[in-house]
Amino acid sequence: RQTGNSIIMDAPREAIFETAADLENWPRILPHYRYIRFLERRPQSSIVEMAATRSGIPISWTSEFAVDRERMELRFDHLKAFTRGMHVVWTFKETPSGVLVEIMHELRFRVPALAPIAEPIIAGFFIHHVANQTLQCMKAHMEART
């Protein structure tokens, strides 16, 4: 299942991209993020543990994180727990009304029989909500700076 969140930001594309790529700064600018820990740093990608809250419910996940400056994309591949195997791609596109920042999530449940039950909870209640909050807070932060 593929889901997405998007928002238009009124700030320079490169500044938005670099701010989003700076994961260590997220807990300072995104109030719903509790922490981000780099477990392993490698030249092409890193392993990160990320933790946020969704309506007071603590959640965390581990991802392989890659910054593609040539394509201006951020990629996360979830490695553990319920979202293991989920691919997340952030894109940043110039439009006449501002920079369109999109987060696309592609999630395939390993137990297809549970997908009808798990999908609305994991994808809808947690993923979509946290991604939307992330974009809203990032937009507020970026637009306050410019």
Short description:
The protein has helices spanning 13-21, 26-29, 115-145, and strands at 2-9, 33-41, 46-54, 57-68, 73-78, 87-95, 98-106.
List keywords for this structure.
146 residues; alpha+beta; seven-stranded antiparallel β-sheet; 3 helices; 7 strands
Describe it.
The chain is α+β, with helices and mostly antiparallel strands. The protein has 3 helices and 7 strands. A 7-stranded antiparallel β-sheet has the order 1-7-6-5-4-3-2. The longest helix has 31 residues, at 115-145. It is globular, with a radius of gyration of 15 Å. It starts with a strand and ends with a helix.
Distance between the amino and carboxyl termini: 36 Å
Output the helix-strand order: EHHEEEEEEH
Structural class: alpha+beta
What is the β-strand count? 7
Spatial order of the strands in the main sheet?
A: 1-7-6-5-4-3-2
The general outline is globular
If you average the pLDDT, what whole number results?
A: 90
- Determine the fraction of residues in helical runs and give it as a percent range: 25-40%
Number of helices: 3
